[in-house]
Structures are given as C-alpha cells and as structure tokens.
Amino acid sequence: MQQQLVKVLATTHDGFFALDRQWRYLYLNPVVERYERKSKQELLGKVIWEVFPEAKKMLFYRKYHEAMASGQVIEFEEHIDFKWFDIHVIPFDMGIWVFYRDITESKLSDERKDDFIRMASHELKTPITSLKLYAELLRDLVTTDEGYDYIHNINRQADVLNKIITDMLDLSHIELGRLEFKKRTLDLNRLVTEVITNLQKTSPERLETKLPAKPLTIHGDQMRLTQALTNLINNAIKYSPGRDRIIITVKKNGRWAEVAIQDFGIGIDPAYQDQIFERFFQATGTKGKAFPGMGIGLYLTKTIVDKHGGKISVESELGLGSTFTLSLPIYEAPASAKRHG
Amino acid sequence: MDKSLEILIIDDDPEILKAVGASLKHHGHRPLTSTAEDNGCILELRRGHYRPDLILMDILLSGTDGRRLCQEFKTNPQTATIPIIMFSAYPNIEPSAKAAGADAFLPKPFGWRDLNYLITELLDTKKIG
Predict the structure, then answer these.
(1) Does residue A335 have a pLDDT over 50?
(2) Tell me: the pLDDT tens digits for A189-206?
C-alpha cells in the first residue's frame, strides 16, 4: 500500500514533499526536483533554508510552523518567484507533508475575467445613464398616470440592471480578494436611518424602525454596510409580496450592535436556511415560483459582514416570514482617545 | 430652476453628450457639447475666449485622461475658477478625480436628480456664478 502510494506521488503533476521537525527533507517527488532544479540526492536531508535561503521571510515558513505546532491541516496561497501556488500542509508524527499546485494560469485567467467584467460594467453603465436621463425627460412630457407608471418602471428596471452589474463586479473582486473596505467610526443608528430614508423614496412599503436612544458606534465602511443593509431590506420587500410591513430594529446586545430585519412574507424552507448565504443560491416560493435575481445578494452581504468581524443569521418560518439579524462589533475607542474625549 | 447656466459637457460618447445635453436643456440650462479631441472648443477655453459656468467631464476620454485635462484647466489662470464635475462608471476613481482638482464627482449611472443635486450644491457654495 505504502509503495503504491509513493508511486502515485511520483507520477502526480503537483509538488509533494515531507519535512521532519528539524526542517529537513524526508521525501520529495520529481515535481519538487523540477521546481528546485536540484536532484533528489541533493535535496534529501538538507534543511529547507539551505535550499531556499529566503525561506524564513516567506509566508510558507510561518504556515509550516503553524501546522507543526497546532497539528492542524493548513491551506493557503502564496506568490513565489513570479508564480502562484496553492499549498496544503498536513502534519504527521515526524513533521509535515506539503502538497503544492501551480495555480498561476488560473489566477491570471481570474484576473483577465475580472478585467473583462470591469470593462463590461463600464460599457453597460454608460447606456444606463442615457436610459435614466431620457426616462426622466419623458416623465415631464407625459400627461397620464399610466404613462407616468411606465416611465417609473423603466427607471426602476434601469436601477435593477445597474445593481446586477455592480454585484457581478463585486463578486469578481471578492474572488480575487480585491474588494476594498475604507473603515471609519460610524453611528449605526444614523446609518440605518439613512438607508431607510433612501429606500423609502422608491418603496411604498411601510418600513418601521425601532432605534435605541443612544448612538451605537461601530468601525466600518459606510458604503459597504449601506450595501449590506439595503440588500437585506430589499430582500425583505421582495419576499413579502402583498404584505406591506417590515420592522427594522437596532439594539445593543453585549459587545454587539445588532440590526434585525423582520418581514411577514413567504419565509424560508428550513431545508435551505443553511444554504441561503452561499453564492448563486436561489430561493423559490411556496409553489415553486422563482423570484428574480442571481443569488449573489446574500453572499455579498455575508462577505461584507464577515470583513467587519460581524455575524449574520436568519430565523424563518414558511408562510410567516423571516428575520435576518446582522451583528457588528461595537467600537471601543482606544484608551488614549477616550481620555482626550 | 433658479438660474440658467452655460454648461460644457466633454465626453467621447455621442450618446452621453446627447442625453446629458437634452436633460440640461430641458431643465433650462444652455449646454454645449464637445469631445476631448475637439481642439477648437478646448483651445478657446485654454485661451480664455470661452468661459462656461460649469464643465461636466468624463474621466475616460480617448486620446487623453480626463483627470489630466481637469488638472490642466485648474492650473491655467484662464480656466482655474470654472467648476468641474467629473463623472465615471468606475466609482473607485473618485479620490483621483478630486486630487486632479474636480469640484465634484458623479458615479455612472446617474439621473437628473443626482446631477442637479451637485449643480445646486456648487451654486450654493458660490462656486458657480
């Protein structure tokens, strides 16, 4: 069995080697020989930094240490000598197994895809601007309520199109780790109020708010948190057709600032409640009726919340509605800042 | 609308020039449209022979970067005091647009309400007129 395994490792296209606790090569396959441009005989028994003088400055050295100390499997990506590697470290009694794969091509292809989406989004946003401007011009020219409604719909659909483009771009940025966050201290009460005021301009639904008397300070990116809250409230509106009541409650819960968004809509089947934050997950209504969308919104919302060290959860009952709770750490000003007020 | 403004729109996309121009005209302003390569109009501006109340400019222009043109207008004594609103489909570009001297930034897509809000703000802060 062991001999067979060694044969398999010798023929794989990925690099595979073992280090003992003194960082010496115990085993390596031909791929490692090719990458290091050294033979097995030259490498076996050598300490890793004899082969790789910069080893101690690299991320992999820290990760190998971490895996040896914790006994846990660790996976990470690192850019070494102009190439990207996906690296897995598996501890065993004598040291660690390291398995690595050259992912440069797929990284480059992801970057090209991101560039393409960025360019396409620019090309699409320009005609949306024309559409919006002409729709607004027409609004002043029509004289009937029916005509006014049609123009309102054109405008709303132009906004939907813009949101799809923005979400696609954000999704691509997430995959490349390029989603940017510009954090500063914010009052969550104020942020929620602004989001609701903005949504109320276009949504006739009743958005009831319950806010605490005192400000709730958090440290976050205003634009991204606005995006997350808008997604959740828009979902509440979208999945409660025919109902006009949504309750948004902001409160302090220990060291967390919480926003709960409660709707009285279709609810979520318990079987799907664990999957709704996954990418491309699509909800269907009670009679299998599909709702429009690409299944990106909640995934983006969760990513934004995660990047703020926060949590998001859902409680839901089919036919009765759902409550999404977003929790963000309350910001504690550093001691020196407190002293100076 | 309180005041009719002479507004120069610089963009390479004729559809944007038409749509923004029509919107401004409908709301009582006097728009003039130009591409970045329209040397006649830009030259008149540079020499101080033509002075609009406001310039609306895209960032991505063929042949030149809108930010470079903005910087040039803001350092030329003939054009330095003309307020400039830059617009772009890349919202992350805002800081570099402001660094180039733009008085305001408008992310695409925008409607009349967004554009008018910025114009009114510039009027209120006396940057226009």
Answers:
(1) yes
(2) 999 999 998 888 766 668
Q: Say whether residue A8 is in contact with chain B using an 8 A CB cutoff.
A: no
- The interaxial angle of helices A188-200 and A222-238, nearest 10 deg, is 50
Q: Do residues A188 and A328 make contact, with C-beta atoms less than 8 angstroms apart?
A: yes
Strands A206-210 and A245-253, by their bridges, are parallel
**In this predicted complex, what is the ipTM?**
0.85
Cβ distance of A132 and B109 shorter than 8 Å:
yes
Strands B84-88 and B104-107: parallel
Q: Which amino acid is at A86?
A: D
pLDDT at residue A297, rounded to an integer: 87
State how far the Cα of A4 lies from the Cα of A11, in Å rounded to an integer.
11
- Residue B16: list chain A partners with CB under 8 A: 126, 129-130
Tens-digit pLDDT profile for residues A63-119? 999 999 999 999 999 988 888 899 999 999 999 999 999 998 888 888 888 888 888
Instruction: Report the SS3 class of residue A200.
Output: helix
∠A64-A70-A75 over CA atoms, to 5°? 50
